[in-house]
Write a structure and sequence with these properties.
Strand content: under 5%
Shape: globular
Helix content: over 70%
Length: 285
């Protein structure tokens, strides 16, 4: 089951990596809240036919869906708004730092000391992401602080999903916290953004792709996969989205990779494989 869960999270990383292109499209039209809002609400609606008929949502599930939805709202908002003021390369690298933050959030919040293998793996993944996203040359941009702050909330989201969502039905939990995230984004979007920007064909395509695949399929599979994979290991596997984002850009946008960026990809892959040395043992001491 652990192998199946890890492979599921790998599929999520592939989906999320390709979705970076859609976020770049929305950023060109200065859409953040409306883009996120409609995408998440649409994804929650798509999941309705798959909800268990006789599954009664417990009070605890409502609470953690609200917490997860609020955290995801902050994470997605900071990431998308940050793309207005920074390069996609910077955003990709800084967002991927949630991999580094996750084990330390577990340590602070749950007194779970990181395994030494995890510490080495997350630092390696951070180095690989830096080389991959920036080519070894990081130039500070105005939106970088927002992307870095968002990475903390991405890490919190991984922790909450791993610790609490695993106790409940994955589809209903996913749909519930998607709707909360989408509703909050939509409320902000109607106040601060121009709804006419949603009518452009590239934006419509980006919304549909993100809603159906990145959110509807990707985040739902994340909830299921983290039922069987510890949060730190999950964050490392999901960090491969940076690699698949570059591959998608190479295939679809014909962007080339520098040798140093290829080295970054290799370091991330090695870091993820290294983290698996623990096998199925309990990683928390």
């Amino acid at each position: 089951m652990r192998l199946k869960a890890d492979l599921t999270l790998l599929a999520v990383a592939i989906i999320w990596g390709s979705a970076f292109i859609t976020q770049g499209i929305a950023a060109k039209y200065h859409l953040a809240f409306l883009f996120n809002g409609i995408s998440f609400i649409l994804a929650s609606i798509v999941l309705i036919p798959f909800l268990p008929r006789q599954n009664k949502i417990q009070s605890g599930q409502w609470k953690w869906m609200l917490v997860a939805g609020l955290i995801l709202f902050v994470a997605t908002s900071m990431q998308q708004v940050g793309l207005f003021y920074t390069k996609i390369a910077n955003a990709g690298f800084l967002t991927s730092l949630y991999t580094v933050f996750t084990p330390f959030l577990l340590w602070v919040g749950f007194r779970e000391k990181p395994h030494w293998i995890d510490v080495i793996a997350v630092l390696g993944a951070g180095l690989g992401a830096f080389l991959l996203s920036t080519g070894g040359k990081f130039h500070v941009q105005p939106g970088d602080a927002m992307e870095l702050g968002g990475a903390v909330f991405w890490g919190l989201h991984v922790v909450i999903i791993g610790k609490f969502a695993s106790k409940y039905d994955p589809i209903s939990f996913a749909a519930g916290h998607f709707f909360i995230t989408g509703l909050l984004n939509l409320m902000f979007g109607l106040v601060f953004e121009n709804t006419s920007q949603l009518l452009f064909f590239p934006v419509i395509g980006a919304v549909i792709y993100r809603a159906l695949l990145s959110i509807g399929v990707g985040y739902t599979l994340q909830v299921w996969g983290q039922r069987h994979t510890p949060p730190t290991n999950a964050s490392l596997i999901l960090s491969l989205e940076a690699v698949f984002a570059v591959i998608a850009a190479w295939l679809l946008l014909k962007q080339t990779l520098l040798p140093v960026q290829l080295a970054g990809c290799l370091i991330i892959f090695i870091s993820v494989l290294f983290s698996q040395l623990k096998g199925n043992q309990n990683v928390h001491q």
